[in-house]
Amino acid sequence: MNASDNGRDNAGVQSEQRASAEGRRYNIVSVDDHVVEPPDVFQDRLPAHLRERGPRVVSTGEADVWEINGAKHAITGLSAMAGRSFEEYTPKALRFAEMRPGCHNARQRLVDMDTDGIDAELLFGTLAGLAGGTFIDLAAQDAELAMACVVAYNDWLAGEWCAEDPARLIPQCILPLWDLASAARELGRCIGIGHKAALLPGLPHVFDLPPFADPAWGPLLGACEESGVPVALHIGGSIGRKQAAETLGALGPDAGVPAETLVASAPLTNYGVLANVLFSGVPVRYPQMKIVSVESGIGWIGYFLERMDWTYERHRFWTHSLLDEPPSHYFRRQMYGTFLVDDTGIETIERIGIQNVMWESDYPHTDTTWPKSRELIKTHLGHLAPEVLHNVIAGNAVRVYGLEES
Amino acid sequence: MNASDNGRDNAGVQSEQRASAEGRRYNIVSVDDHVVEPPDVFQDRLPAHLRERGPRVVSTGEADVWEINGAKHAITGLSAMAGRSFEEYTPKALRFAEMRPGCHNARQRLVDMDTDGIDAELLFGTLAGLAGGTFIDLAAQDAELAMACVVAYNDWLAGEWCAEDPARLIPQCILPLWDLASAARELGRCIGIGHKAALLPGLPHVFDLPPFADPAWGPLLGACEESGVPVALHIGGSIGRKQAAETLGALGPDAGVPAETLVASAPLTNYGVLANVLFSGVPVRYPQMKIVSVESGIGWIGYFLERMDWTYERHRFWTHSLLDEPPSHYFRRQMYGTFLVDDTGIETIERIGIQNVMWESDYPHTDTTWPKSRELIKTHLGHLAPEVLHNVIAGNAVRVYGLEES
Q1: Would you call B319 and A280 a contact, using CB atoms and an 8 Å cutoff?
Q2: Is A337 helix (H, G, I), strand (E, B) or coil?
Q3: How far does the CA of residue A143 sit from the closest CA of chain B (Å)?
Q4: CB of B299 within 8 Å of any CB in chain A?
Q5: Which CATH number fits domain B29-51+101-401: 3.20.20.140, 2.40.128.50, 3.30.420.40, 3.40.50.300?
Q6: Rounded to a whole number, what is the distance in Å from the CA of B360 to chain A's nearest CA?
Q7: Is A211 on the interface with B (CB under 8 A)?
Q8: Inter-chain contact A268–B321, Cβ cutoff 8 Å?
């Protein structure tokens, strides 16, 4: 695999032609999909003196594994299961050759998107972590290398992978959060090269970062608000050096609970992220900021807004709450949840907000709706009024991420 | 305060007279309320050689604090807020004299229940922990003392406090879970003295207990099934020696997240308990067992059943699932959720199961509906069909806990 495999000449041109013939209009936008970084991302971009320590792929015979500064980072097979039957799902780390090429090859991704009828995808990484946590961890050992990796990832994602068709492959940047002033600068640079959202961990303390209520976050959060670029809080985005045992709480891998418990629970873990962002007063201080809870499902949000409002009503005195209004006020004004198939969420959509939910396909993870997205949309959302349906599967995303239609 | 304050002569007799005049019929049953153990519970009951080390109340001047085997156990004020305005809520530990007497005095509790129109309450402790965790922790230092404390608590709750009116004050037993064979025997003894449910932690590993899939649980879980006594899994029931930092996961007290985050999130933490019990195969092996998720709210359960079924469908092959059917099958057959005010839960009640939800008042905690329970029931449940309403606020509880009507 190398950069020319991405073949930005063919598929990209075809897409643009198609788009210009029809006028660009997004019919189905997925706000949560993943790239599996191919082996050349970092070695092609790091300064010469950092290459040796920087991320490189080594083969263990059974799997292709990343090595960073001497430490091995295996990628669970569950991150690259698109196209497999459920019987073939495995957590075992894979070789790139065992993955569906659309996992790591942009041209092939566009082909897979065509198969599934997906017009655009908002992209997260794999090695990088769901909020860049791999490099936040790395910074504790080697901040120079970590910063170079963040820049390399952001450059590669926007400048190479998504350049394959920038209207359909939408990059979201990771940030050097161990240095919040630099993070604000990197955000500005990323917006300049086409990134449409910033990834943040919802529980900063997991990375020993200051809480959101700390003024240190001001420059970055202010820049997010001012630029209009949404903040995406993906489930698992707070998995870092303290790892799942703490992030998933008592359900961590040492807990002796069945693996299905962890898988079933993963989306719902973002309840704490929602509550933390809200009760830390982020939307109070940044009323224009857009905040997206990604892959968390939506069927519990109606309940949780009620619960947070109830808590605010009863506890705001002794807690010296940072909010001026009940939490649901801020959620409906500027927060969003995303889902794949969620009948309870759709049944209760008016409690969440018709403008506040966005559909996703989660390619190529185990949850992915690929290649049955249109069928599942028809089955589970087909009863919605046409304008509501359009908002949920495209219109809200176009508005939130500022995608351009013509 | 002393035992005679409980005055079992007056209020108890009045209640029984009222009940016998009308025939005993439960109109409002709350399945989650708390006693604040009064100071004499353990000192009156422990064998002489254990009294010195056993739980006793000492005054710090500002608060009455329990001392057990030399260690202090403060009780948060948030556990005894019934009757206060929200402005007066405080986490500060209190003196007994600052609490509403119904917190610790059974006769006064019955008066408060009359004020609020509550026919019966299912009771949990305070010092004891929500699944007896205080004594599971103690057993690691002094198993003899811990066992005596468990027995004393169970004897006191059924034999003294609830004896004030056994048809209205319903005891639930704690168990010496560090010795699962003894726990099965203690369950049998407790059923004999009137206990109607057994409290278990939903995440046994927090107490270094074997996972539910381990055969060591067989005698106890088998006894629960055989006797028909439900297992109550109260939120926070897995807080023990590993404490909130791990049990509430990344939201623990050291997390630097606002206190409201913890309060708002507490009910939802039981999602992991539900998933653990289900995916550990407990309802598969014990199809007659009744399992209650207490104080967890219900508005997220419809979503989570969908999510668990989705997970089971996709992941059951590589996980070698212990289930034969999707999780929702077992939930609807034998599992229950409880709530105070939960409009989303009621809107989605058919997804959860009309037979599977029970109302609670949570006296005297901060969430309590006291003394407005009837008003809140009318406002939030008044639109339900009469037989559904009756099931939700009484009938389901009568059936699940085996309360006797005449």
Answers
A1: no
A2: strand
A3: 24
A4: yes
A5: 3.20.20.140
A6: 15
A7: yes
A8: no
Q: pLDDT of B298-347, one tens digit each?
A: 999 999 999 999 999 999 999 899 999 999 999 999 999 999 999 999 99
Best B344, B347, B349, B357 residue to mutate vs chain A (most A CBs within 10 Å): B344
CB contact under 8 A, B297 and A318: no
Strand, helix or coil at B290?
coil
CB contact under 8 A, B347 and A344: no
pTM: 0.93
Q: What integer pLDDT is reported at residue A22 of this predicted model?
A: 58
Strands A120-124 and A71-73, bridge-based pairing = unpaired
* Run of H or E including B223: helix B218-227
Euclidean distance between CA atoms A279 and A283, whole angstroms: 9
| Residue B206 forms contact with A (CB below 8 Å) | yes
Q: For residue A144, what pLDDT band results from cuts at 50, 70 and 90?
A: very high
Which pair of tokens denotes residue A315? 């506890």
Structure confidence by residue, pLDDT tens digits, A358-378 = 999 999 999 999 999 999 999
- Strands A64-68 and A71-73, by their bridges, are antiparallel
pLDDT mean over A162-189? 98
The SS3 of residue A268 is: helix
DSSP codes of every residue in A3-66: GGGG-TTHHHHHHHHHHHHH----S-EEEEEE----THHHHTTS-HHHHTTS-EEEE-SS-EEE
What 3-state class would DSSP assign to A279?
A: helix
Among B85, B235, B276, B368, the residue to mutate for chain A (most A Cβ within 10 A):
B276
Residue B239, pLDDT score: 67
Do B276 and B308 form a contact (C-beta atoms < 8 A)? Answer: no
ipTM: 0.93
Average pLDDT over residues B366-392: 98
CATH number of A3-50+100-401: 3.20.20.140
Mean pLDDT, to the nearest integer, of B267-295?
96
**pLDDT score at A237:** 87
Helix (H) or strand (E) holding B293: strand B291-294
Show the tokens assigned to A116.
């599934």
Query: What's the angle, vertex CA A368, arms to CA A22 and CA B269, rounded to 5?
Result: 125
CA–CA distances in Å: residue A215 to residues A26, A67, A209, A319? 38, 36, 12, 19
Average pLDDT over residues B351-357: 98
Radius of gyration over every alpha carbon of chain A, rounded to an integer in angstroms: 20
